[in-house]
Amino acid sequence: MNFRVFLPAVLCLLLCAPSFAAAAEKIDFSADSMSGSIGENADYTKLTGHARIKTESLEISADSIELSGKNFRYIVASGTVDGTHSADGLAFSCGSLRYDRERKVSVFSENVHLVDSQNGVEADAQRIEYNEETGVAVMQIAVKLVQKENVCTAAFAVYRKKQQLLELSGSPQIVRGKDTFRAQEITLNLETDEITLDGRVRGTVTDSENGKNTDE
C-alpha cells in the first residue's frame, strides 16, 4: 500500500502503520509532508520539510528523514541534522545520520559535532559511529576532542564513554595548557587526566616555576 499525506501536526506512526505494533518501540514524528508504503516484509516512509522523529532513546530533526525495513528498523536523516541521545546525555549535529533501531548503533557523517554533557566532552570529526549498548564512539578523519584543558587531535579515535577513556592514533596530539604530547598512540584517562604515550614519544612541557619549555 502506498500513501502520501501532508501533515503539519505531530502524529504517531502506530496510527498510520498497523504493522508497527509488532515493534516494542513507538516512534512519534512530524513533518511538512510524508510519503511511503507499507508491506508485509518491509515498510518505507519519507518525511520531508522540518522533519522530526522521536524514539525511546533518540530524537532527531532534519530536512529529510527516511524510515525503512521491517518495523521501520532503519532511520536515515539528511540535511541539517540535529538531535539527542537522551539516556546517554549526548547531543549532536551533522550532515547525515544512519540509525539501526535493533542494534542501537548510530553513524554520523559530514562535519559531525558531538557533545557528551555527562562527561564534559565535545568532539568533532567527519564520521562517528556510536554504539548505545557499549557506550563506545569510533571517530574518524580530522578528529578533535576537547575536555577540561585537554585538546586532543588525531586521524582516528575511540572514545569509551563508560570508562572515560580516549584512544588516539594517526598523528595524535594532546595539548594541555602550554604542554604538548605526541606519539604513535596516545591514551587519555578523562577522569584522572593520566596520559599514556606509546611509540616515537615526543613533546614539550613547561616548568611552572620559571616558565621554561622542556622538549622530550
Automatic annotation (TrEMBL):
Residues 1-23 form the signal peptide. InterPro entries: OstA-like_N. Residues 97-193 form the Organic solvent tolerance-like N-terminal domain. Keywords: Signal. This is OstA family protein. It comes from Treponema brennaborense (strain DSM 12168 / CIP 105900 / DD5/3). The lineage of its organism: Bacteria, Pseudomonadati, Spirochaetota, Spirochaetia, Spirochaetales.
